[in-house]
């Protein structure tokens, strides 16, 4: 009841305030800025603005206000009409009195104001008494919405060891109530859970640290509950909460530490270089890159024998073998290992040092080892003319475990397939089994095996044997020379420059001397003293008809010890040249010599060509001698003319071999065409009459033609076999050809030929006579 009275009091105050918005009473004039007197039409509404409280809880419909027009004489002739937002649904008007009511509870957060229009209408005529006027219904807010955060749960992080007041996160809430009306939407933030570690600013919702130097290693995760309350936090206000999960982020404030001060490891002496000996690990309470460590060896008697590397995945220090170990030489090593953080935060250096050390003792265990050669590889040299059985060099191996064990030497024959070398199994002396040729192979690479007799353990070592050069090869021409001399050449003219090669390799380099074995009247050799020589003509005017080519022996000598020489023959061909010295033609014999073909080779080529020609001629002759069998074999000259088309049609299905339309339409046949299979006997043959128009069937057409020929006295006295192509495998009558009936000819009867008329008498006599002879 009190609420209703307050509501009406509020409406009364608002209505008093809205009097200022009432349009002037008719008959009263107002002045504009220019002082002109304006007159307005007689018109009057009581209000142009209305106000309602949202979420009205009274019974019945909520009264909004009353509309009244000066044209209403209250005689019941005026009807009020309401249009606009919510007219007829949210709001209704009494058409007689103009009273407006809200039909349901209104929510300002759903719609804050409604714009409507009202007009007065004559009930009888339906005409508007006044123009429609707009007015507004505003919904006043009440505190009916609690604050809401954007998220139910927030995730945040702050570095450990942060100072008090360090920013963590800002959370904000919103209130759907009207911020301009009272304190319904004025929010205040407070912390319900998370003290004394964190605090929140009441007005902004910013969360900050409340304690200094919080350590992640002690506690990493915190849960904070923040409340937002409207009505400026006063009693009776609505509130909402959210949860903030805060994680302390790691910083490098914890140094690495070894759990033990001394570590004991062991490894066999046979461990290879780079093989792991063992692992040690220091622990760091930090995480991520702040926990990354680096291991190193500070000192110790094993510093030269071992190395340590850091496993980036497990953050362990892996100790590996740096040099080959020997149990007989040293059995125990000691190392001082240090671990250090990779990323050091300078802000926390006072918490250090961020490193630690530990002692690592490594014990070497004994292993039965194979023999060990005195060198990792051997290189020997031997002359190429050394006789078989000569010593090349000696290899040496020992048993590292004991001095008394004997070692046997052998050569791996897979590396000496030609068996050029041998080795003494007791002392390791390598000797030659055959003579060596440097020009064949300059180096020989073999493997020598040393085997321990007691345990059969083996070790191999590579042996490289270099064959030293000995001057045992004479120089010779560097290439094959094609030398020409022109018939019109002059004396002293250069015709060829020659050079030489030697497979030997003297220490001071090659030096060749060129000369002629005898004095030659035609050519001479001039040594250029640079391992080349020039061939010059001694005379001019050569004649290729008298001598087509000359052989010039050239002696080539080297300067090594012992001196080697050889004689190489240079072939000089005589050719016809033009005035500029360009070769035009040479003799046939010279051309044959240049091509490298002997007389025997030319004869063999000619014989092959002749044999191929004979085969071709014989094949052609055999093809021309093939005989064709006659279609009809007869001893009598019956003067029968058989026309063979070498094929038959496909019956009615064959549309390629003939035009079936011609047979079905006899009128289109050209009757003037002469027979092409015989010579015509008269110039103007007998003109046959065309079949009647109704004979469109092929069978009737053929029977008509047969009747005409049987009754034609001028028909020639011979038989003609014609193919009408109205038969074949595709026809219902199948093939009528006798070409494939040779095998069954004896089973046929030819009596019906005598009934075909005089035209077939000769044919009937021939076949019936043959049948009677066959029966006899």
Automatic annotation (TrEMBL):
Protein task: Cadherins are calcium-dependent cell adhesion proteins. They preferentially interact with themselves in a homophilic manner in connecting cells; cadherins may thus contribute to the sorting of heterogeneous cell types.
TM stretches of this protein: 590-622
Keywords, sorted A to Z: Calcium, Cell adhesion, Cell membrane, Cleavage on pair of basic residues, Glycoprotein, Membrane, Metal-binding, Repeat, Signal, Transmembrane, Transmembrane helix
Domain (Cadherin): residue spans on this chain: 69-149, 150-258, 259-373, 374-477, 477-591
A cellular component annotation (GO) from this entry: adherens junction
Record's bilayer topology term: Single-pass type I membrane protein
Protein name stated in the entry: Cadherin-10
One of the record's GO molecular function terms: beta-catenin binding
UniProt-annotated location(s): Cell membrane
GO terms for biological process, alphabetical: adherens junction organization; calcium-dependent cell-cell adhesion via plasma membrane cell adhesion molecules; cell migration; cell morphogenesis; cell-cell adhesion mediated by cadherin; cell-cell junction assembly; homophilic cell adhesion via plasma membrane adhesion molecules; morphogenesis of an epithelium
One matching Pfam family: Cadherin
Signal peptide annotation: 1-20
Primary localization: membrane
